[in-house]
Structures are given as structure tokens and as C-alpha cells.
Design a protein that fits this description.
Helix content: 55-70%
Number of helices: 7
Structural class: mainly alpha
Number of domains: 2
Radius of gyration: 18 Å
Distance between the termini: 37 Å
Order of helices and strands: HHHHHHH
Strand content: under 5%
Largest sheet: none
């Protein structure tokens, strides 16, 4: 699992041979802005990985897409990115969708015993992720961009090359499906407890 913060004194750049799963990749300083990239990486990587895992339902595929987005962002240059987090989300989502089209796989959900107070939270989170997986990819991406990254309709429309009205319609359809899915799960859970 990803640490909350990078260890003190740890530098992402030039650490390929240590290769913990949460390191970026070995990069040579192209523009001398290594410290700024390390700060962006430390701030955005955990958030982006969670968002892409919610979209994909597969942490491995999400991690691959996030790392590819960081590599592309580094090549692009930090100075050219107005909102690095949003840019990384769009690029990683596109990489994820591209890779998904190339191969389709089913992912098993792992369950780990948890203390009683965490079980309800885990069930709700699993239900939400399962409901998100039922949405078409574009609806998932728009929901995550809007509610997880707090992007405006205009930003989402520009990022995904769709019209602002389409963003609203897509969100409306996605939320209706999520509400219906949630109601069905609550009925099922209530029937199982009776």
C-alpha cells in the first residue's frame, strides 16, 4: 500500500533500482525542476491512484496508467501544465481506457476481515466501487472527475473532448444508475438480515 508521505530525504528521481511499488520511475532532470515534480508526485499519486482504481476496479491497471501519466507529464514539463492534478487524471484515464480496449480481464475482489466498526464502511465502499464498475467507462470517468477531482463541467468537457451539456447529461444518467444500484443493494442487504 502507498505510504501517506514519502520517507524523509527520499528522492523519487534516480531510485529505479530500489523500485518500491510506489516510486515513479527513474528520470533524469530534463528541466532542473526535480523538487517540484517530487512534490507533485507525493501529493497527486495517492489521490490519482484511488481515482483510477475507482474507475477501473483494478488497482494494477490503475497503477500502470498513473505511472504512464506521470512519465508523460514529466516529458511535457511541469511549467506547461496549468493544473497538473487534473491533467494527470485525464491522461491516466485515457491510458486506462486505451489499455482496457486492448485487453479485457475480470478482477476478483479480495476481502479482509476487519473490526466490526470498519465492516459497514468497507461494505459501503465495496458497494460504491461495484456500482461504479457497472457504469460505462465515460460515465465513470466523468463522475470521478466531477466529484473526486471537483472539476467544473467546462473543465470536464474540455478534458474529455465533449460538450458541456453532454457532461451534465452523462452525470445525470450516471447518478440515476448509482441511485438505483444503491437502492437495490439496500433492499438485498435488508432481506439477508431478516
Amino acid at each position: 500500500m502507498l505510504p501517506a508521505r514519502l520517507p524523509a530525504g527520499y528522492r523519487v528521481v534516480d531510485r529505479l533500482h530500489e523500485s518500491p511499488p510506489w516510486t515513479l520511475v527513474e528520470l533524469k532532470a530534463v528541466n532542473g525542476d526535480t523538487g517540484a515534480w517530487e512534490a507533485v508526485y507525493a501529493r497527486e499519486y495517492p489521490r490519482l491512484l484511488r481515482a483510477l482504481t475507482a474507475i477501473a476496479g483494478d488497482e494494477g491497471a490503475a497503477e500502470d496508467a498513473v505511472q504512464e501519466a506521470f512519465v508523460r507529464g514529466y516529458k511535457q514539463g511541469l511549467a506547461t501544465l496549468e493544473r497538473p492534478g487534473a491533467w494527470l487524471l485525464v491522461v491516466a484515464t485515457r491510458v486506462l481506457f486505451r489499455d482496457r480496449r486492448r485487453r479485457s480481464t475480470d478482477v476478483a475482489v479480495e476481502t479482509v476481515p476487519a473490526p466490526r466498526d470498519e465492516i459497514d464502511f468497507a461494505i459501503e465502499r465495496a458497494d460504491l466501487l461495484a456500482a461504479l464498475r457497472q457504469l460505462p467507462e465515460r460515465q465513470r470517468a466523468v463522475v470521478v472527475a466531477r466529484y473526486y477531482y471537483d472539476q467544473s463541467y467546462a473543465e470536464i468537457a474540455k478534458a474529455f473532448s465533449i460538450r458541456s451539456g453532454t457532461v451534465g447529461a452523462t452525470l445525470s444518467q450516471a447518478l440515476a444508475r448509482l441511485r438505483a444500484s444503491q437502492a437495490a443493494r439496500q433492499l438485498l442487504r435488508g432481506a439477508m438480515r431478516s
